[in-house]
Amino acid sequence: MDDVLTIVIISDSTGETAINYMKSVTSQFPDLKTSMRRFSDIVDTDEIDEILADLPSYSIIVQTLANKELTQYLRSRAKDLDITVLDILSYGIDKFEQFTGHKAIRQRGLTRTLSRNYFEMIEAIEFAIQYDDGKDFRGFLKSDIVLVGVSRTSKTPTTMILATKNFKVSNLPLVPEAKLPQELFEVDPRRIIGLIINPDKLSDIRETRSKSLGIVGESKYFDKGRIERELEYAKEIFSDLDCKVIDVTENTVEQTATEIVQYYYENFPEEKEVRNLN
Q: Is 229 annotated as a binding residue?
């Protein structure tokens, strides 16, 4: 297409976040002709209407609006005009809310510049989703940290907390009947964390989870004998991997993540220095 793509930056702050982001994106398309318009300090729907009234049809909107209602309004109006909206701020906020249980204050102007850490965090979150629950064994060798443990040892929540700290984390559920991937044994043991838990607490957690899914009656999923065999199997695997083991019985997810980060930096102090520079 020979037309010039109009990139429309709409922000409740300076718009530098979106500009830096789009510079990174468009640098990958050297043959694409673009022009950029920036609208800063947007705080109401009337301003949005004025912007949209004068857009070329071949446009894309990149917005960094912290206010949820304003974001929804922009999406709705843009949809009516068949214009794509890239929402690079809400993506991170929504994922934080989903996996931490905390609600964002969504206050405009809290960040005036986009740091490298923001992009690294988004990349780490996407990585965690892609390689969660052993979906793709190739992720193990790309990971900063690999979490392994039986079902319901908080592998995924811990993975997401670590992702918000810019760590690329994958995880694998341990099931006695399932063959372990060879890729796991190729990972530096210092990067592998085994998660263990008290069998009685794990049984309670699994039973509660089953009931929440509408499963009633006895089940080997939360049978204590079965759980004890799973945990013994996990301990054997941890020994074979020669990895760090953390007991999560009394831990919150945040406490487990903190313990992992401390252990990680003890083994890779040079990475702490690099991350602090960012």
A: no
First and final CA of the chain: distance in angstroms? Answer: 38
24 among the known binding-site residues?
no
SS3 87: strand
Contact present, 33 and 5 (Cβ < 8 Å): yes
248 is annotated as contributing to ligand binding: no
153 is in an annotated binding site: yes
Torsion of CA 117, 119, 125, 130, to 10 degrees: -140
> 208: how many CB neighbours lie within 10 A of its CB?
12
Q: Is 249 annotated as a binding residue?
A: no
Give tens-digit pLDDT for 22-65: 888 888 888 889 999 999 889 999 999 999 998 998 999 999 88
φ/ψ (deg, to 5) at 54: -125, 30
Contact status, residue 165 vs residue 117, Cβ threshold 8 Å? no
191 annotated as ligand-binding: no
Q: How many residues can be counted in the chain?
A: 278
Q: Is 152 annotated as a binding residue?
A: yes
pLDDT tens profile 138-169: 999 999 999 999 999 999 999 999 998 999 99
Strand partners, 59: 6
Task: Determine if residue 84 is labeled as part of a ligand binding site.
Answer: no
